[in-house]
Amino acid sequence: MISTCAVVVVYVSAWVLWGQPRETFRTDRLVRDAVRGLVAGLVLVGVFAVGALVVREIPLLTAPVEELLAHASAGRLVPVAILTSVSGIAEELFYRRTAVLTLPGGFRTRVVVALLLFMTVSATMGVPLLVVAAAVLGIVAAVEAQHTQSLTSPIVLHVVWSLSMLLVLPTLLGAA
């Protein structure tokens, strides 16, 4: 948990320094963009729930996920849920805003490189399915950020997806 907190501090600090915080959100469309993010997040939850039902029969893939989710057990669900939410917010601030603004190259190149960085950091967790999740979540979040010109939708979808996976995935994987 301490390392996750440290990464959150780095991501948020980078956003404050180089992410142009005043231009990150569209205050005139907060509710509309939040609803977009909620809907997109719930759609992703549905897609990943179906995926979990398919891969739960493959121990090689599910064992690392179950290990990761075990952190939320033993009465630590609330702090893990809070850290999961804060981490999701920080990731969006960094990968969908700061990295896209500061990486070299054209806009599409910067978005792709930011996505690859997001996937690479996810790979360090040692959970192969987390890399797939980072790719899907990262693509949808990048599309939402570009479409809305704001991070409200990507942040909401990321938090909705992350918390849903934290709460629902153990049941889906354990139902085998």
From TrEMBL:
- Membrane-spanning parts: 38-56, 68-90, 110-143, 155-175
EC no. given is: 3.4.24.-
Q: Where is the signal peptide?
A: none
Has the keyword Transmembrane helix been applied to this entry? yes
Q: Which residues form the CAAX prenyl protease 2/Lysostaphin resistance protein A-like domain?
A: 77-163
Q: Which keywords does UniProt give here?
A: Hydrolase, Membrane, Metalloprotease, Protease, Transmembrane, Transmembrane helix
Among the GO biological process terms of this entry, one is: CAAX-box protein maturation
| InterPro entries in alphabetical order | Rce1/LyrA-like_dom
**What is a single molecular function from GO for this protein?**
endopeptidase activity
Asked if the record carries the keyword rRNA processing, the reply is no
- This chain belongs to the protein called CPBP family intramembrane metalloprotease
Q: Can you name the source organism?
A: Brevibacterium senegalense
